[in-house]
Amino acid sequence: MDPLLLIPGPSPVVPRILEALAKPTLSHTSAGLATDVRETLDFLKACVFTASGEPFVFAGAGTLAMEVALLNVARKNDRILILSQGYFGDRMAAIAEAFGLGFDVIRSSWGSAVRDEELRKAVDSIRYDVVAVTHVDTGTGAAAPLRAYAEVLKGRDLMWIVDGVCATGGVEERMDDWGIDVILTAAQKCFGAPPGLAIDIFSPRAMAKRRSLPSVPAYYSDILRWLPVMHDPQKYFSTHAVNEIRAFAEAARIMAAEGIAARFLRQNRLARAIRTGLAALGFGLFTESEFLAPTLSVIRYPEGIDDASFRANYLTAGYAVAGGLGETAGRVFRMGHMGNLTDGQALGAVEALGETARAMGCKADVPAAVEAAAAVFHE
Ligand code: PMP
């Protein structure tokens, strides 16, 4: 039996989506695939509440989507500000560095996020051209206060990039209302689709900035090469990840049927239920409560539980979780709870976690913890 994938992405892919993935490979310029591409693009716009944004989807992963976002709105001598609450903000800085772009970074401590007042101070004192932020950092479980950032950045002449890889589709991101210029994400987390697609959505302002650049230091990642294909998916630039797109379109249908607002609520409920169960079992959270993201939990061990042994035992029980990154390695484990995870699967995970901890010497009342978690679903 394969384990239930509770790492913070990829999230479990339900049979209906796997069946779509296993459908015959169509021509990348066929009318059949074009229908799925169009449906995917329309869905992405709805997902981030934009009427006029330009969505792009192509073979790749989140890191490619980050590169695409930055390279298409940053001019060579632009001043770039990166807000980093951990691992993936630092990656955005590494990408800027790889392309020789100058940048400043404001880092929060791990488990926290940069506060809007700090952002205000920075953009008041220096005229930045680009501000890049991570919505949810998958290393730390911290969500940035995007709405507060939106208030700070409103009306300023700069490009605002949001990395939504661990958020888009599971946490609210209102592109038009909040004035976000680029949202980048990937298929494998909140959408519950298999990995393999990079996604970027550009505002009209961001498109205009790209058009104002004489060139970008990229070929595949140049959105102007992709734009004709997104407008007419029977055109060719580079071969689509045909089967991944068929699978993603099915994932989009599942999400559209559930309703995006209902999905955000369910996401919150899953997080609360799992955390209630964990607390009852004696596990704490690493992330500061003010910044807790609903899509994953970064969990501290009770005294005496060894990280590697715990995760190996939990895997034997049928659940895959991830270890800590960077400074948290060995001290925490990370559990994703996004996409199409069901209430029943979440309760099963809490129960197995309790049994695993008990077998390792923890005094946990497993039935009481499961009951406490289940009560959240019955509220
Ligand atoms: N940004 C964030 C917030 C992420 O969580 C991840 C992946 N965990 C990435 C970027 C990079 O995505 P990928 O691994 O698909 O390249």
Report on the architecture of this protein.
With 379 residues, the chain is an alpha/beta fold. The chain has 2 domains: 15-258, 3-Layer(aba) Sandwich (Aspartate Aminotransferase, domain 2); 260-377, Aspartate Aminotransferase, domain 1 (Alpha-Beta Complex), CATH 3.90.1150. The chain has 14 helices and 15 strands. Helix 2 (31-47) packs across helix 10 and helix 13 runs antiparallel to helix 14 (366-378). The longest helix is centred in the last third of the chain and has 21 residues, at 260-280. It is globular and about 65 Å long. The model has no long low-confidence stretch (mean pLDDT 97). Bound molecules: 4'-deoxy-4'-aminopyridoxal-5'-phosphate. Residues 9, 61-63, 66, 88, 134, 137-138, 163, 165-166, 186 line the site of 4'-deoxy-4'-aminopyridoxal-5'-phosphate.
What does this entry show, briefly?
The protein has 379 residues and is α/β, with parallel strands linked by helices. The protein has helices at residues 15-21, 31-47, 62-73, 87-98, 116-125, 146-153, 175-178, 204-212, 223-231, 242-258, 260-280, 307-316, 343-359, 366-378, and strands at residues 4-5, 54-59, 80-84, 103-107, 130-134, 136-137, 142-143, 159-163, 182-186, 197-202, 284-285, 296-300, 319-320, 322-323, 332-336. The radius of gyration is 21 Å and the shape is globular.
